[in-house]
Specification:
By secondary structure, the protein is an alpha/beta fold. The chain has helices spanning 3-7, 57-64, 104-116, 122-135, 151-164, 181-198, 209-215, 248-261; strands at 10-21, 31-42, 46-51, 72-77, 89-92, 169-173, 201-205, 218-223, 226-232. 34% of the residues lie in helices and 23% in strands. Helix 3 runs parallel beside helix 5 and helix 4 packs across helix 5. The structure holds adenosine-5'-triphosphate (ATP) and magnesium ion.
């Protein structure tokens, strides 16, 4: 463990978290989505959560973001319960959720308006929106409406919108899943650039094991509502998405993840 790791306070602490949904009919059993999950995430750490469909990843994020109340267990975000920590949190989904009647710039301004109200003036909101849209490489599209943007550009604007509110912790639920492989690689690069500059605490969910290894400081593996493995990604940054698969460390990590997920007999598209 490096010295700076020991000195960095945990940004997120999850202890014995359980999320149980009521049964759809009285004859069904309740759905145990999260079953005794515990982990800590350090300030500035980029943690990726992987697991097969239905293993509870989104449920964990929703509890962290204060959208679900846990059935039992405790969660602390920057030392507070999730609802009290709302102003520290940003949440980004696979669907960009951009407002179609607002331009890229005004979508980001809207998020700033919601988060900061009148404590940021109009011109401050505008300047910050432009700054973040430029940071993710779509400065040329500031005044375009969402329907005038490609999927990759829309997702970049969504990234700018989440990042512009300058949250301390960021939850990202398969944010690049809907993009084609090449666009995804480009947006991953933009995301890593922004993260490297600002070093926010990030919890990132993906089904894509290469994406997980490319992005993460640490990978948490879930199966059936439980954490079954945690893997530190000791591959130097910046990582090259074209070369990383050649790295023996990548191959052994990939193998370990496949084993943890018990994917040997599952076609990759069903992960
Ligand atoms: N609101 C809900 N009511 C009842 N059951 C739910 C609800 N939300 C999730 N579940 C169940 O909880 C389990 C975990 O769901 P969750 O969405 O957390 O999985 P996930 O790992 O994010 O899956 P995916 O990779 O498909 O997004 C699933 O069995 C799901 O059917
Ligand atoms: Mg999910």
């Amino acid at each position: 463990m490096r010295i700076e790791d020991r000195q960095t306070p945990a940004s997120i602490t999850v202890e014995d978290l359980e999320v149980v949904f009521p049964p759809p009919t009285p004859d069904d059993p309740p759905a145990v989505a999260v079953d005794g999950v515990s982990f800590e995430i350090n300030t500035g750490e980029l943690v990726v959560l992987v697991g097969r469909s239905g293993c509870g990843k989104t449920s964990v994020l929703n509890v962290l973001a204060g959208l679900y109340k846990p059935t039992s267990g405790s969660v602390s975000i920057v030392g507070k319960p999730p609802l009290a920590a709302r102003d520290h949190i940003g949440y980004m989904f696979a669907r960009d959720g951009l407002l179609p009647w607002r331009t890229a710039r005004r979508n980001v301004e809207f998020a700033l308006e919601i988060r900061y109200g009148r404590s940021l003036s109009r011109s401050e909101r505008k300047a910050r929106a432009i700054e973040y849209i430029e940071k993710v490489g779509v400065g040329h599209a500031l005044n375009r409406y969402p329907w005038q943007l490609s999927n990759g550009m829309r997702q970049r604007v969504a990234l700018a919108r989440t990042w512009a509110i300058e949250p301390d912790v960021l939850f990202m639920d398969e944010p690049f899943a809907a993009l084609d492989a090449q666009t995804r690689a480009e947006v991953q690069r933009e995301f890593l650039d922004v993260w490297t500059r600002d070093k926010k605490t990030v919890v990132f969910v993906t089904h894509d094991l290469k994406e997980a290894i490319l992005l993460a400081d640490r990978i948490i593996v879930m199966r059936g509502g439980k954490v079954v493995d945690q893997v530190s990604v000791d591959i130097a940054r910046p990582r090259d998405e074209n070369m990383i698969e050649e790295d023996p460390a990548y191959r052994s990590m990939h193998h370990r993840l496949i084993e943890g997920l018990q994917l040997d007999h599952v076609p990759s598209r069903e992960i």
